[in-house]
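Field log, afternoon session.

UNIT: design team B
ACTIVITY: writing a sequence onto a fixed backbone
BACKBONE:
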């Protein structure tokens, strides 16, 4: 019989209890398919299908080797520390493939986004190559598309909150790292609020220098300006207009960001407890025992086994084209 993990009450709400002290030997794995050890050794990933193909999926396992949802089963907060959060890395810096948590699929594996039948890649906009940070999401957050944000006057984009990790190391897709929150940018994408958290890996050699958004301006001059321009122009090569921003593109500080995170965590709790209309969002989880969407380990394994593990023929990463959008 599966031991259900209780939701622990914290100042931020709930997190799934887990044997956090246990660690996997680096490189050890269970079950079929290639695995990669996570930065904290608490989580591992299992690939299904071929990278750069529509069938590619990257599933997550916990320290016990059980399949989990990176959206719902990885706690938002690492511990009771005010500013220490888990981040799920979706896109490594300098890469182009738009990898993302599949919010509408059971267990929410990472997959490559598809639009109009084609795999999505972000364009290279001179002088940048692909994503200019390690890009990912905070688990157990949700930007509610039915709830208007009081500060932006726009509803959410129906996704976990996005994170731009500005540390020096290029991370891997599927890594789960601990980050410090530094600030936030409010992108308005087709009338929806799409928050972008600015954070740094706590294991970065310079992490001790960074405490708030002004430290990014001080120690990484030009990075925030590049970030603003990247988000402003990245859809222009697709024939779309420039993106807009709330607050005239001003980056808000850590305190503001923490309030936004807290709000999106509350929205996630409402979603997972079936107290709102989540639409097509899959809330299947293994560790949030109070949720009506929780499933057994056996059911989770069955979900994964239905996904092909054979290396289907995938395409090579998209040819590199550069776009010059300077004015």
């Amino acid at each position: 019989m599966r031991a259900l993990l209780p939701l622990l009450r914290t100042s931020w709400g709930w997190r799934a209890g887990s044997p956090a002290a246990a660690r996997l030997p680096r490189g050890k794995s269970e079950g079929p398919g290639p695995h990669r050890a996570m930065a904290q050794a608490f989580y591992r990933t299992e690939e299904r299908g071929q990278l750069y193909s529509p069938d590619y999926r990257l599933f997550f396992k916990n320290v016990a080797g059980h399949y989990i949802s990176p959206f719902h089963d990885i706690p938002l907060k690492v511990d009771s520390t005010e500013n220490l959060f888990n981040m799920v890395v979706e896109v490594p810096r300098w890469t182009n493939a738009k990898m993302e948590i599949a919010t509408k699929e059971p267990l929410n594996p990472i997959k490559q986004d598809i639009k109009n039948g084609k795999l999505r890649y972000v364009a290279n906009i001179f002088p940048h190559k692909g994503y200019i940070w390690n890009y990912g999401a905070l688990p157990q957050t949700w930007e509610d598309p039915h709830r208007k944000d009081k500060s932006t006057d726009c509803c959410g984009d129906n996704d976990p909150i996005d994170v731009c990790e500005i540390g020096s190391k290029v991370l891997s897709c599927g890594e789960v790292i601990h980050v410090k929150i530094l600030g936030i940018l409010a992108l308005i994408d087709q009338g929806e609020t799409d928050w972008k958290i600015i954070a740094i890996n706590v294991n970065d050699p310079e992490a001790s220098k960074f405490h708030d958004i002004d430290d990014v301006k001080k120690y990484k001059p030009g990075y925030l300006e590049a970030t603003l321009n990247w988000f402003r122009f990245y859809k222009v090569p697709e024939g779309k207009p420039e993106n807009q921003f709330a607050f005239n593109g001003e980056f808000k500080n850590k305190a503001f960001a923490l309030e936004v995170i807290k709000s999106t965590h509350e929205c996630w709790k409402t979603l997972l407890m079936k107290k709102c209309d989540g639409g097509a969002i899959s809330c299947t989880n293994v560790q949030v025992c109070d949720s009506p969407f929780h499933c057994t380990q056996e059911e989770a394994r069955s979900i994964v086994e239905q996904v092909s593990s054979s290396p289907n023929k995938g395409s090579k990463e998209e040819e590199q084209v550069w776009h010059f959008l300077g004015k």
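LOG NOTE: Helices lie at 213-219, 223-233, 254-272, 297-305.
NEXT ACTIVITY: expression trials, pending approval
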